[in-house]
Amino acid sequence: MKIGLFIPCYINQLYPQVGISTFQLLQQYGEVEYPISQTCCGQPMANSGCENDSIGAIKVFKKAFEKYDIVIGPSASCVLHLREHGVNIFPSAKEVIDKTYDLTEFLFDIIKIKHINATFPHKVALHKSCHGLRGMRLESCSERVKRAPDKQKKLLKLVDKIKLVSPSRADECCGFGGTFSVTEKDVSVQMGNDRLADYIHNGAEYITSGDMSCLMHLEGLIKRQKLNIKVIHMAEILASNKVMVPEEKEILETSNIH
Amino acid sequence: MEKGNSTHPVGAEAFNKDKKRVAWHDKALWFVREKRDKAAHQIPEWEQLRELAAQIKAHTLSQLDLYLEQFEKNALKNGIHIHWAKDAEEHNTIIADILENHQAKKVVKSKSMLTEECGLNPFLEQRNIEVIDTDLGERIVQLADEKPSHIVLPAIHKKKEEVGALFHQHLHTQKGASDPAYLTQEARKHLRTKFLNADAAITGVNFAVANTGGFVVCTNEGNVDMGANLAKVHIACMGIEKLVPSQEHLGVFLRLLARSATGQPITTYSSHFHRPKKGREIHIILVDNGRTNQLAKPDFKSSLNCIRCGACMNTCPVYRRSGGHSYNYSIPGPIGAILSPGKDLKKYSSLPFASTLCGSCTDVCPVKIDIHTQLYKWRQIIGKEGHLPKGKKTVMQLTGKVMGQSKTFSMMSAIGKKILGGPKVLAYNALNPWTEDRDLPSPNFTFKDWYKKNKNNE
């Protein structure tokens, strides 16, 4: 299987280690390639009411990924955007978008992994990103009577020594919301701080998620306030025996580049 | 990014100045949301019930003209007076005329979001008619000279101490009193005299039944019944979307409404009106006021499914932390944010952006309005019609250009890395207001850098 690795723009720029973990995870299942011409899914423009300004991005996406059997990205949000809106925005990208999946979907639904060689001896809270939760139904949702398969939770439970902790509000939004985080800064920050207080109160050492954008917002608040909790993308936990534990990561990153 | 005509962020910023109040408001409404969850989870067929309700609404709206005529015919047969109002002004004028014909000077009014939408109270007050809101929450905001901040819980933004002070000022209750039982009792006494002396009662309509010509009004306080049964004239104001085809459909909605609104199995009072008593009159005003415009928009017509339960407000993390007044529209919250642009796109252009598109509103909606999808679609229309703040539009155009060209993207990515890796003060100035409260990581390589270097070693 020839896998096209889709690394969302902000992950490429701000969280390269998430890209590395995803790359290393996927390598077990096929020949993975990162087409370097890729840019972005176009969601920032489209969610801001500027779908037309996002056509170029989807065109680039189509061109970069059409030659692969399957396209995988570590972001429910970007993949969902392509699926729900990308096809409308640039219809000829449909074929590529139809074979584009979020990492959780790939591991749970396509590979159907039952074991994973990963160890993460920490208390971890799963932050269910709204687009994964409600858009893709990866997890059960507190307001819905119908239950979902809880794919992310099941994947995390495969990890050795991990201890999952539950927040008091099972699935409230973190308040990122793309440009919402800037245009509605006050509410956005309040939402983020409320989530953090909940995770900290329930004893989590780490907050994990299938979407780094939520975690970027939360980490921004954590670092500014010097709070005692960390964020980590699910891919990093699932690849923990491949990339090394987060504490050692900095050394690896430095040695790789310099 | 400039705030431009964004009224919601301005209101939200003001609300967020008092952090304790925000936390209290959030908690109060979350409590209601949790009650709703519990009530919903007690009905195993909940999701099917929602689907059924959505289909009944979709069907009714697809033949609204026929059902409205059927309703009119049956209501007239029952001796009810029917009036048609194309807009708020007609609605208000019709009511003023009815009241004048009966020389009615004192009016009691139960909760009706439609009369809020039409600005009925100030219209009647200007004509020297006393209008007393008889729903406790509405009476509170009326005494405070404010507007409801929630459609089911109009005074949810007020603390009991504030209500106590307000009642002390207007109803001469004990100074400093804040005991809800005492305050409610005093409000009850005050309202009793208003009910007994009213010349006319105005109510809303929750559901109207086409095949009977009857209608249902739901309350927890019985104020509809006190008003409508005591006064000589009962005027019921209803939006034309309130119809259901027949009596058997009512049960679906009555099961959904109170569970979604407050977590109760049913409202304390579900009052059915079919015909006036001898010597009395019932008038129904059927109001369009923009509804047929919304109905003509395929992407947005299902917003008319709304049964005004308020569940989307209680679940909305933005509403809970910005308060109903920040929306500056008679119906706040997610549903208000998809109804208001149909009324005045420019004026309400910030409302569809007052959301992270988390989608919880869509999930709780008992009539399955795809609220968050409609928010997204309104955003596109606002963008196309040129009502975005100028700075935002420019930034998006530029971002679109960068993302549309691999080479430009790489170049900008390299510049971005330099900026983020450079002195924080420079980087953070450029990224304000993200960085007023949040840091950003500043890795010294991008994933692309790493990949180029390592792809062959892996």
From TrEMBL, chain A:
Residues 4-83, 124-218 form the Cysteine-rich domain. This is Fe-S oxidoreductase. InterPro entries: Cys_rich_dom. It comes from the Bacteria. GO terms for molecular function: oxidoreductase activity. One of its GO terms (cellular component) is cytosol.
TrEMBL record, chain B:
GO terms for molecular function: 4 iron, 4 sulfur cluster binding; metal ion binding. Residues 296-326 form the 4Fe-4S ferredoxin-type domain. Coiled coil: none annotated. InterPro entries: 4Fe4S_Fe-S-bd, 4Fe4S_Fe_S_CS, FTHF_cligase-like_sf, Helical_ferredxn, LUD_dom, LutB/LldF, NagB/RpiA_transferase-like. GO terms for biological process: lactate metabolic process. Keywords: 4Fe-4S, Electron transport, Iron, Iron-sulfur, Metal-binding, Repeat, Transport. It holds the Pfam family Fer4_8. SUPFAM superfamilies: 4Fe-4S ferredoxins, NagB/RpiA/CoA transferase-like. It comes from the Bacteria. NCBIfam families: LutB/LldF family L-lactate oxidation iron-sulfur protein. This is Iron-sulfur cluster-binding protein.
